[in-house]
Please model this.
Amino acid sequence: MKIAVLISGRGSNLKAIIKGIKSGKIKAKIPLVISNKKDAKGLDIAKKYNIPARFIDPAPYKNREDYDKVLIKELEKIDPDLVVLAGYMRILTDPFIEAFENRLINIHPSLIPSFQGLKAQKQALDYGAKFTGCTVHYVTKDLDNGPIIIQAVVPILPNDTEKTLSERILSYEHRIYPQAIKWISEGRILIKNRHVIVKNAEYGTLPVNPKLEDF
Ligand code: GRF
Model:
């Protein structure tokens, strides 16, 4: 399986996915990482692991459609089986989402449909929620709201700050994202409208549902 990864920043999820591949758990290759930010730390992570990594500057393009056209072209060259958004901080245009329909996934740091959009961890904290979490989902035109593959529940503690809560959530992101990608690579995903079923997975477990198998 060929995976392309889009990033904008730190790249810790990218690193977790690379490690999943390196360890032999995920049978896949990453032929391309693209960042829309020049100084994204994730570009250095990719280079460290000899993964082709490119900064594609949005500045010369007059709108999001034109930029996304370039991304589509670059991605089509490698013909990815899966396009993984890992902290990619730009809203994708409809033609991009259509080009990679059913092979485009994202991770969001909340239990969607709660706390969609930016700063999801802070939203949950400010709301006074007692649980939040993270979600791996297919990307549809409905922002942060596509069919859900896997979710992890994370408690919110009285003394939490945005930082402590984000770290607690992130430790689960680094497990559920590689797990979801592994399931996709194994052809175990069935999608029916909004409903995703992972074949032979164990459902009904806490804090992660369906149950983690490898991470
Ligand atoms: C993560 O919290 C992810 O859920 C969100 O953006 C952050 C990216 O972190 N979409 P990293 O770049 O993978 O470290």
Q: What stands out?
A: Strands lie at 2-7, 29-35, 53-55, 82-85, 104-108, 131-138, 148-155, 189-192, 195-198, 208-209.
